[in-house]
Every structure is written in structure tokens, then in C-alpha cells.
């Protein structure tokens, strides 16, 4: 635009010179006419003036002549007055004569009368000289006779002369007036024509260029304004150095870029030098000197130091202005901060290395085949897949063909041919033989690039080493066949059951156990045929399995046979998950134990009789009571384990004395809730026995000396021959060693479970975090596509760079999580809470701007917490994303973050003004896996579950306050 303005200005200057030339030509052309007109006007004015004077002079001569004659005749003397009059007469006559014929030479005026006028003047010669001679004679002779004779002569010629002179004057006046009028009209015409030509020349030549110049000036002004806006938005600083006055001028962006103030620079070049990194200063000074001497222009990159010591990378360019002697008088330049570019370059390089590493890990090679030359480019991993070191051989199409398995070569060639002629895409699996002879299974994809005529030029693609996968699939198919055989022909019932309880697949034995045909059973659910008394227990265990609290369960339960009978089974249930870790279906193993249950009941009856008489020994306590709970038998084993003597207990105490009161009360609460009636005291131990059942349960026994130990207590009822209940028998076994082993086993299982949980949690973090980042990147790219100006696109690129940097850091943190061992404390580090919140806001900037949301970070800058970095990013991303996603449709989303201290702990409060949550309806399942509350199509129900586990893993907890249509506040306790 500046170039256009300069060209327009130059054009205006040239056209203005043309315009001036036209005016000068017109003036030069009209100058003779103007000069002639001037002369005519001058001569006309002079002649008219002379004519007037001549009339007056002629009249005065006539009067004077008359007076002289009168005086001479009356007085007869030539007195003093006579002489004076005569002298005046002669003087005026001569003057009139000179003026009329020759002009007044004293005033530079020359009169050129016309031939007619000149002829008339010449015809007056006789009268003229008669008057002159008489006057001269009269002047020198004073005698009366001579005087009178002269006077008569004068009077004789006076009248004819005057008449002729009047005619001459009138003729001359008429000629000059006509000439003057003609000249004036011609001058008016020429002046008008010249003015019209000048005006038209101005309109045609100068005015359009002036308009263009004004338009160009307006555009230049707009361009300049946009340039200043662009340089500000692009963070480009502009500077100027006046060499003569040693004055340095910066714009505002330069001060921002160098993080200094105006008073720090003071317009001095040396002050600028002080901001440059010491290692780069000599280079900058050297290039500046070379530029000042006219040897080069500034185009370099150097480092600067902010006052706080921060190092920034600066790119500088400058041009010089010279005087007419070629000496540099001014430098004008720009600076732009390329620190982010340097960081981005580093990230890109690291990304390339990561890509190569990822290809190596994934065994994924890439290739580029020049169809015309036959040359190929292979990635490092492709070389390795073919058994070569990278670059060991020259990659080409022939090398590829030579490695194909003979049995697959024809298929591959056909696939290539189909791709080249466009029949179908290149997507094939085949085998190759490596350099060392090993067979490798390959999945290959490719795409053909064609010229303008559709002829194939290049083909690029990937190969994936799927040897392990292929062999595993073969083994899986074999295993599946084996499972199918085992499933169908198993000696026990087996079934695949949906999450809702519907039978999906059943074997023959299960149909035999339950009495249904396969078609009949597939139309039912397991709930339909479960004994009502066992259904709740079964569903409770099933729910725990779905929550991940257990990995399987087994229980004895009763099914309802098709004929109405009861079938006792041993049920073992495990959960199968899909590839994403979501529950898919259940596997149930069902063993018919109806006969065994009958045998157990019979055996129990016999054992009850035997146990009542049998002393269990030192590690077994056998105690019997009556129906009221008074001890009726206290075995030797009981004495050994508890320290009481039989006489201290029999008919004296109840078994409650050897139990922990809190355990008894807790069990009473459970039974009361289970059976819906108050169960307390001794009934807590014998309630199941009263119902004809036996109960085996762990209890804690209390010795006489106050010591405690765990026991496995089995309580059964004692009946007489008529089957009436007469008492109760309790057999307790000391399980101290068993509990120790169990605790050790549980500890190992907890460690394994914790590790599995962390692995699962890590997988969720990766999915959750990367989805947030990539979603934001997609959003910014969408905004980039919708941008209409370079400034908007530049702003979107800046956002994209910021998101890329944040993503790189997130990946780094996730890599660190992989290396975390079982000790949770190793995961924690000191984190600046405000910094992580600001970083999360930056990640979500695109979505915040798109949704018109507002994030208010009130957390002070000095607040630090002990937390895992990756967990912190995940927690903040989840809560802020939810605050925006579940915004109220009638108002902009506002999410506010504050920090408070409660019970000695830091509590992060995250409050929004969104839809809110019905806590009465959803409060208990708020943090459950796959639980959603607002019906959003993109809701997964995993975010709050992950977040709660992350916070609790760090020793914290989450509390929620929410009101529908008002908003939600999450309180996160941190250390």
C-alpha cells in the first residue's frame, strides 16, 4: 500500500508539471497578443489624451491670439502683458506641434499616426507656419504696424488651422478607439479560452490523480493502522536509530518485548546493549557497526535478558537510510520474540523422535514409492521389519518384491495393480521372509497419488508387523474351539449372562439341571428362576462385581426347577469386560449340589449329636446352651482357649461373657435390619439356628485375662427325637494363624489391586486428558477455518501453539505416572495451584471463547499443595470442562475457583452457575462409574469417578453442594 501511495504521489507530481507546462505554453502563446494589446491601449490612451490636450491648446491659442490683437489695437502698445502672452503662445504652440507630430520624447511615447491622419496633418503646413512666423515676428517687433500685420496673419491662418486640427484629432481618436475595442475583445476571447483550457487540464489531468492520492492516502492510513494493530497482535517491535543525534526510539511493543520501561532506555543505544545477553553482545555490536558503515543490513538472532534473569530469543532485521553522500543517517528495524518458536521447534523435534520411537514400539513402518523411478523411501522401522539395519541397503521396489513369501506374491502384485488402476484401495495382509529367514506377518495400507491426467506417480503407505497378533489370533481361535468344546460338554452347567440377567448362551448340562429346553431358558432371566430368599443376596454380590469391589463371587443358592422343585447349586460368577474396560457380560458356572445339601443336612444332624458328646480338644471350643442362653456344657478346649473353668461357666453365665460387646451389638443391628424385627442379646448367636439353619461366622473371643483372639464359630440347634429345638451348640475354632495368613494374602491382593487400579486409572487419565486437549485443538482449528482475517488466524495459531505446549507437558507428566511404584507418596510433589489452574484455563481457551464462558481464578499465587501433577491436570480439566459443558441455557457459564482452610487442610472450592444436580436423586451415585445425570450425548460418566479416586489417592476427599438451576460447588480437600 505504501508503494501504491508513492507511485500515486509521483504520478501527481508528473501530471502537475504537465499542467504547469500547459499554463506556461498558454502564457507564452498569448504574450505577443497581450503585449500588442498593451501597446494599443497605451498608444490609444496617450493619443486620446494628446487629442484632448490639442483641443484645449487650440482653443487657448485662438483666445490668446485674439487677446493679443485686442490689446495691441486698443492700447497700441506691446506692454509687458503682451510680451508674456506672446511667449506663452509660442511655447504652447511649439509644444502642441511637437506632441501632435513627433510625440513627447521625454516620456518615451512615440505616436505613429495613420496615413489619413498624417495626410491631414501635412495639409496644415501652410496655416501652421504662417501662424508660427507671425508669432515669431510679433515677438521680436514691437512697432504697431508690424504687430498689427502679424496679428492679421495669425488670425488669417488661425481658423483654418484649428478646423483642420479638430478633424485630425477626431479621426485619430476614432481609429484608436476602434483598435482598442478590437484588441480588448480579442484579449477577452483569448483569456476566456486560456482559462477554459487551464480548468479542463486541471480537471482531466490533475484532479483524478488528487482523488487517487486522497484514496491512496486513506488506504495508507488504514494500512498503517492495521500494520500497527498487526505488529501489536504479532508481538513485533519497531525501532529507529538516528545516527547523527545518537537517538534510539522504540514503540510500545519493544518495551513489552524487553520487559523494561521508558526510563530504563532513555533513548540510548548503550542502554539497549545492556539488555543483550553477554555471549551475544559482540556479535550484535559487530553487525551494527557493519551496517553503519554500509557493508551489510542487520538480519540476526540473539538472546536478551529480562530484569528478572529470564532469557528470551529475539529475531532482528533492519534497513538503513542514506544521505546524498551515501552515508548512513538512520536505521529502521523490527524485533520479534521467537522464544515460543524455539520451544515449538524443540517440541517438533522431540515429536519426530517420539514418532520414530512409537513406530519402533508399535512395529509400524512407513514407505514412499516413486513409481516412475522405482526408488523407495523406507522408515527406520521398515528396515528393521525386513531384517536390515536402517540404511544398510538401498530401498527400492525390487527389494520389496524379493522379500515376499512365494505363496503371497501373486496376491500382493494383484493388490498393487488394483490400486494403481484405481480398482480398489491398497489394503492387504501378507507374509515376508526377513533377511535371517524368519517369517513376518504384515498388514499393509497404501494410497496412490496421480498427476493431472490421472496417471499414477507415487504411492505411499505403511506396513505393520502383526506377527505376534496373528499368531495370538491363531492360538485364540484354537483356544476358542477348546472353550467351545469345554463349554458345551462340561459336566457342570455353564452360561453367559447379560448385564440385565438374560441368558445369552447356555450348555446342555444347565438345561438338564433346571429342566428347561434351551429355547425356553433363553427367553428367561436368572432372576425369573432364582428362589426369592436367595435373590437379594445374589444381586448384592452382582452389584459389587460391577462396581469392581470384587473380581468374582461364589455362593450356594437355590433355583426353581421347571417342575416346581428346588435345585441347590454352587454358583461361581465372574465378569467379562470389553476392550475398553467396560462390563460386557457375566460367565456363570453352576454345579448341582442338591444331593450334597441333603447329605450335609443329614451329616449335620449326626454331627450335632456327636459334637454334643465329643470334646474337641485344645484348639476347639465346644459350648452348648439351653434355649435361654445359659451354658450347659463347657468343653476342655474351651477351658484351654478361654481360661475359664467349666464350673465357672456351666449354669452360671451366658456365652455373651466371652464375646466383644460392640461385635454383638453390630451383629444385632444387621440381623434386625435383615429380618425386620428387633434381635438382641443371646438371640444374635442363635437366630439362624432357631430357623433350622446353621450359621458359620467369625467372632472375636475374650479370654478371662482380657486377651482376644479370632474364632470361626458354627452354631446349630439341638433337637430331640421329635425334632423339637431344645438347645444350641456352638463349636469355635481358633483361627489366629489362619487370619494371619489371610491378612498376609489380603495385603498381597491389596497391593496387586492397587497396582491394577492405578494402571486402570492411568489409562483413564490418558484417555480423559488427551480427549480434552485434542477436542480443544479441534475447536481452535475449526475457529481457524472460520477466521476471515490474518489477525484472527494468527490469534488462533497462538492458541494452538499454547495448547501444543500444554499437551506436551501433559504427556510428560503422564510418562512420569507410568514409572510410579506402589508407594503413593512417591507420586506427590509441590505444585503451584494457581499456575496449574491458569494453565488449564489456557488449554480450554478455545472452548471458553466459543461458549462465552468465564473462569475466575481467585487462588493466590503463593498457594502450594502436595499432589501428583498429572492428577492435578486431570482434576482441574474435569471440573472446569463440566462447569462449561453443563452451563445453564439462560445465562453465560461462570466458574469461580477459591481456596480456603478448614480443619488444617487447604480446600479448593470450584463453584459454577450451571444446571445443578438433584442431590436427593443422584447424591449417592454422583461419583459412580458410568453415572450421568443430564442426558448429554457426550457424557461418559467416568470423569467424576476418576477425579474422586485421584483425590482420595492423594489423601484428600471431595464434598458436593448443589441445587438444581442454581449451580454446583465442589470442595476438594488437599494437603
Describe the structure.
With 975 residues, the chain is α+β, with helices and mostly antiparallel strands. The protein has six domains: 216 residues; 104 residues, PAS domain (Beta-Lactamase, 2-Layer Sandwich); 127 residues, Beta-Lactamase, CATH 3.30.450.20; 103 residues, 2-Layer Sandwich (Beta-Lactamase), CATH 3.30.450; 127 residues, 2-Layer Sandwich (Beta-Lactamase), CATH 3.30.450.20; 222 residues, Histidine kinase-like ATPase, C-terminal domain (Heat Shock Protein 90). The strands form six sheets. The chain has a five-stranded antiparallel beta sheet with strand order 2-1-5-4-3, with helices on both faces. The protein has a five-stranded antiparallel beta sheet with strand order 7-6-10-9-8, with helices on both faces. Helix 23 packs across helix 27. The chain is elongated, with a radius of gyration of 61 Å. About 3% of the residues have low confidence.
Strand order of the largest sheet: 2-1-5-4-3
What would the average pLDDT be, to the nearest integer?
79
Task: Give the oligomeric state.
Answer: single chain
Write the CATH homologous superfamily of the largest domain.
Histidine kinase-like ATPase, C-terminal domain
Class of the largest domain, according to the CATH hierarchy?
Answer: Alpha Beta
Low-confidence regions: 72-80, 96-111, 819-823
Name its key features:
975 residues; alpha+beta; Beta-Lactamase; 6 domains; five-stranded antiparallel sheet; 29 helices; 27 strands; elongated
